[in-house]
Amino acid sequence: RMIPHVFGNPLLSSLITGFVAAVAAYGAFITPKIFGFTYTTFGSIYPAFVALLVFNLVTVAVCYWFYVRKSANMNV
User: Fold this and answer.
1) Which InterPro entries match (predicted)?
2) For the residues of 3-15, what is the DSSP string, one character each?
3) CA 73 – CA 65 distance, rounded (Å)
């Protein structure tokens, strides 16, 4: 629901929504591959959890920086 609000043009927001959905679909494919790689390489899935935790923390920080703080340009 945030994308149509940020991009006012209906055509642009539908294009961005489709692109985001396509990228998100890869998450169901990449996540098990990450777990398999770390289990094969390190003998444990702990590094995969650490990598995904770091990725999630970075994405939360990016969302905070661009949307939540008072001086953000894209207040939603």
Assistant:
1) MFS_trans_sf
2) HHHHS--HHHHHH
3) 9
CA distance 31 to 46: 13
How many whole angstroms separate alpha carbon 76 and alpha carbon 74?
6
Q: pLDDT at position 76, please?
A: 54
- Asked whether the beta carbons of 2 and 63 are under 8 A apart, the reply is no
- One digit per residue, the tens of pLDDT, for the chain of length 76 reads 677 777 778 888 888 888 989 988 988 899 999 999 999 999 999 999 999 999 999 999 998 888 888 787 765 5
Name residues whose C-beta falls within 8 Å of residue 16's C-beta, 6 or more positions apart in sequence: 3, 7
How is the chain split into domains, by residue range?
2-68
Per-residue pLDDT at 40: 97
